[in-house]
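User: Hi! I'm working on a homework problem where we have to compare a predicted structure to a textbook description. Could you give me the structure for the chain below?
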Amino acid sequence: MKRVLKTIFLAGGVATAGYFGFKVYRIVQIMKLAEKTLPAHLESLCGELPHIDSGVAINTKTVLTFKIKLSPEAMAKLENLNESVLDHLRENYPGLMKYKIEIKAIELNPEDSFVSGAEHNDPEEG
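Assistant: Happy to help. Predicted structure tokens:
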């Protein structure tokens, strides 16, 4: 009898861990898709391709974080960045709306203007 209960509890623990692992995997995959499509959406609104970092924190609550880096001119064009990002997520990724979403807008300095992956070659350096 002890062996049967031990096997049942072990199987239940493995199934529970697998279920939560699958939930985390699904959240991360949707976040990756959102991170790929969100720059194009924001570029159509402000005319500049932003740099976006995302993260997932899973503790007692699941918190999804988007860090959006834009120049001050692009930030001025977007009156309400949080609402436009949330509207995009509501339309395209409704599964993310049941989690807490934090959107952090960061203004770039003029020295940090090469966020789109372009390389800067100084003509004085040769």
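For your comparison, note the following. The chain has a mean pLDDT of 85. The longest strand covers residues 62-70. Good luck with the assignment!
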